[in-house]
Amino acid sequence: MSAVGKGVATASLGKILQFRGFNISVVKIDPYLNVDPGTLNPIEHGECFITEDVWDFTPVQGSDERSYRISEIDQDFGTYSRFLGIEMHPSHNITSGQIYLSTILSERKGKFLGKTVQLIPHVTNIIKERLMEISKNENLDVLLIECGGTVGDLESSIFLEAFRQIKLEYPNRTALVHVTLVPYSRAVGQQKSKPTQHSVKLLQSMGLQPDIIIGRSEKPLTDDIRSKISLYSNVPEAAVISNPDLDIVYELPILFEEQGLGDFLCELIDLKAKLVSY
Hints:
By secondary structure, this protein is α/β, with parallel strands linked by helices.
């Protein structure tokens, strides 16, 4: 769901991995057709984050096609930068506009050798290539990927398909973390798990099983609601993480750590913490 706090949750996951000495970075996927958010109305979309670097985005590598100079990226990168203390490169903001532009111009250049160009495998391959290129070029231990929007949105479905393929190709090196709203009904004084149940079922219908569920709620998740989410979502209770409203948002990594999220995540993707000195 949009504006549920995926950016802060992603940055907090990055911080608890940094605590363990891992070299991490973040990619944000925005499923709109703009090439970058620099042309978006800031009243509607929010202010852009301006990077130190300017990226020359060339849709087709090695071609004479024009490049697009990008230094304005999604505002969530401001959150990542403040939490993690790292410089963010403009290439880490992937949009549908970039992916489809690369696909269409590659076809015009004959890159697909006469094949029928389709969403699967051609568009998904370009998505995966972008992600793998970032990970390899920066020699990362972990690459965190936030996908904007809501499960079930048509525009983001191709990215979820790419995630499904990545999980299939790297089964012990990937984890799917689902951030979901757990509304609190003041009328009955209860938290409700139905939105979570339905969004998880949608993910499962796409071939994606969440490994961890982060429940955004006004109050900490009760033991009963965690058990219920665990049962209906097919994840261990230890993988249902509470993410309540906080007065100081920078306390969220500590809250995640207290719930054992860091150790659980490292076990999922077979990471062994490094020695860290502060």
